[in-house]
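User: Here's a chain of 567 residues. Predict its fold as C-alpha cells.
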Amino acid sequence: MKFLRRFVVIILILILVGAAWIWWDQPRKVDMADYAPADSFVYLEFNSLAELAQAFEQNDTWKAIAPLTGARLKPENRWISMAARAGIGPAASVIFSRAQLALVVVGMNTTEGEDTLRIRPEVALLVETHTSHWRIKSVAMTAVRQLANFAYGQSTCIERSDNQDLVECSSGQGDRKIIAAIDGSLLVIGNAETAVRSCLDVRRGLRPSLRTDAEMMRSRSSLGAERSLGFGYISSANAARLFSWGAPLLMGKAPGDEKLQQLLAANAGKILRGVAWTSRPSLGGIEDRFLFSLEPAVVSRLEPAFNAAGTDDSFWRLVPGTFQSLTIYRSKDPAAAWTALDSAVAIKMDALSAVLFGSLLKAGLAVYGIEDPKLLLSSLTPPLLTLKPTSGAPGSVLLARTNDRERLRHTLAQEVFKGSSGQIIDGLDREPDPEKEFTAIFIDDYLIVGKTENVRPFRTALKSSPAADTRLDLFRHFAPQSSSAILTYANDDTRLNSFVSVMASLKGITLSQDQLGALQNNAKAWTFSATETSLNSMGIERRTRSAFGQFSTIFSLVQQDSSSAPR
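Assistant: Prediction complete.
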C-alpha cells in the first residue's frame, strides 16, 4: 500500500513537472515589427501559419481545387498540434506550429526607361521560429536551398559564418541570390545581403524598428490586426514616394523627372498618413481590408463623393457578360463628387501643387476624351461605370445614364470632340471608324464613351455574348447586397490559375491544359472578386473579397520569378 502511494505521488509529480515544462516552453508571441527597419517600404506580418493553413482548408475554392494541387484535405489532429506547439515532434512541425512571419521590403532599386519604370525591391523574410538555434539550423538551411531551386532552377549554395550562420544561394547566371542568416531563434531570408543585414541590425538595436512608427501602431489597432490572418503597412513617406513614381505616367510624362517626383512625393505626404491592410476569411473566401489614412480635413472634404444614391441595376443589360473589370460609382451628384475630389486634394497644397494634382485627376477622365469633367458630368446621373470589356482591350470605356440626351449630344459634338477627334453613334449596328480617336455611342438613355480602340471590343463583346444581367449571381458572389458608393468587380482567373499552378509545382505537379480547364470549371463560382470602397473617419477604406485574396498575388509573384529562371 505504501509503495502504491509513493508510485501515485511520483506520477503526479511527473505530470506536474511535464505540465509546467510544456507551459514554460509555450512560445511567447513577439511583435514582428521589432525586427523590421523603421524606414521599410512595405511591411507584412503573419502571426500564425497554423491559423492561415486552417483558413485555407476551410476555403470553398480550396476544397474545389485541392485534388488538382495534390493537397489532402484532412482535419487537424488537435493533440499532434498541441504537442508541436509545445516543442515536441519533428523540427519542421514544431517550427510550423510556433513560427511568426514578416515580409519586409527594405529598399527599392529603380531603373528608368523611355516610358517605363522598372523597380527591383530588396526583400527580407523574417521567421521567428520560437525554437532553439541548434534545432532549426538544418531545417532552415535545407528550406533555403529548396526555395532557391524552386525560384531559380538549379542553384549553387555556399555556407559561411559571420557572427551567425549564413547561406548564400545563387542562380545559374549569378545575377540573383537568396541569402539567409540565423540569429538565435530568428531566421532572415533576403534577395540581397543589405536587406538581411538591415534586419539583423534592427534586432541587435543598432537601428530603429518599425514599432516606433505611431501611425503603424494606430492602424494596426483600428483594423483589429490581432484577429486577422495578416497585417500590412506602408508609411506616409513611402506611400507618397511610391505614388510619385507612378503618377507621372498618368500625366503622360516619362519617368525620371527628379524635381517632379520630389514635388509629388512632398504634396502626397501632406494628404496621406499611411496605408494599412488586414486579411480574414469571409463568405467562403478571403477578405482583404485596406485603409488609406488621410488628414481629417481631407476626409471631411471627400464626403460628397461618397454620398451614395439608391441602387439602380438597369445598366447590367449593357455590360458584356465576359468583362474583365467593372467599377460602379454611385455618387448622388457626379459633378459635386468631382468638385469634392478636387477641393480635397487642393486644401493642403499651394497653388502650383494644386494645379499639378488637379491635372492628375483630370488625366483619369482624359482617357475617355473628357478634358473638362464639369462640362460633361452635369449631364450624367448615377451610376457611372468604368469598364474594361475584354483582356485584349488596352483600356476601359465609360458607361453612364444621361439626364438630357440632346444637350449631352450637343456638348460632345461642340466641346468634347473638337476638331473631328471623335464620332457619335446611335445604337450598336454601326461599326466605329478606327481612324477616329474617340467614340461615343448612345443606347436609349445611356452613353458609352472612350477611345475607339476600347469601344470597338466593347461593342463586339456586347453583340456577340449574353449581357451580364444573365450572370449577376456570379459577379455578386462576394458582394451580395452591397450599397457602397464605389463597387468594383474584377475577373480573377489569372491570379487563381497562377496560385493553383504554384501550389501544384510545390508538389512537383505540372498541370495539363485539361486540368487547367477542370480548374476553371470547378472554381467558376469564385472567379470574380468584389471590392467595396467607402469613407470612414480615418480615411478611405477598401474591402476586397476573392478566392484567396492577396495571398494569390504573392504566390503569382513566385511563379513569375520561377518562370524566368534558367533551366
